[in-house]
Design brief:
This protein is of the alpha/beta class. Helices cover 43% and strands 17% of the residues. It starts with 5 loop residues before the first strand and ends with a helix.
């Protein structure tokens, strides 16, 4: 008899970076990955729209008998996780958020850059996390177009990174969007 799958949702291809890590930890599970490329990226959408998108996807994943749902999108977690957990209390729903607390735990005094979508950077959920663990040495960078450029495999990614990344020396970078690990080498290249 086949196991119930784990559902993973993202606003596009970024969640594959999360799926890859989950498979390493749980290689014997079955998965359903839902990429909402129609509405990608969520970072520039309204909170109400993101809640509606996520709710629709969660309903679909529940209809596929998923035993757990992972919201592999920082903006979706920031905007919708509370509402979705309240609406579906009988299923484990796990969200992802920028790993800013790790800076507090391991690199407290280092010059830090947090890269995320506008939705995540300005969300109440992230701002609460940020203020709780602020090292007074952090730059919050709203990367308005980066997830879209990644989704479209756009040739303008390098130019955009050169334009937005700080010119000062950065010692730690928090990638607050699941799309951004796809560019880790380029981010390292253009960040002093």
């Amino acid at each position: 008899m086949k196991n119930s799958p784990i559902g993973i949702l993202d606003s596009g291809i970024g969640g594959v970076t999360v799926l890859k890590e989950i498979i390493k930890l749980l290689p014997n599970e079955d998965y359903i990955y839902y990429s909402d490329s129609l509405h990608a990226p969520y970072g520039e959408k309204s909170k109400e729209d993101v809640i509606n998108y996520v709710d629709s996807i969660v309903k679909f994943l529940i209809s596929k008998n998923c035993k757990m749902i992972i919201v592999a999108c920082n903006t979706a977690t920031a905007f919708a996780i509370k509402e979705i957990r309240d609406k579906y209390p009988d299923i484990d729903i796990i969200g992802i958020e920028p790993a800013y607390k790790m800076i507090h735990d391991f690199s407290y005094n280092k010059k830090t850059l947090v890269m995320a979508t506008s939705g995540t950077i300005h969300s109440e959920k992230f701002l609460n996390l940020y203020h709780q663990y602020d090292n007074d040495n952090t730059i919050l960078l709203s990367c308005e177009k980066l997830a879209t450029l990644i989704e479209n495999d756009d040739d303008g990614i390098e130019d955009y990174l050169r334009e937005i990344l700080p010119k000062e020396k950065i010692e730690a970078v928090v990638l607050g969007c699941t799309h951004y690990p796809l560019l880790i080498d380029k981010i390292k290249e253009f960040t002093p």
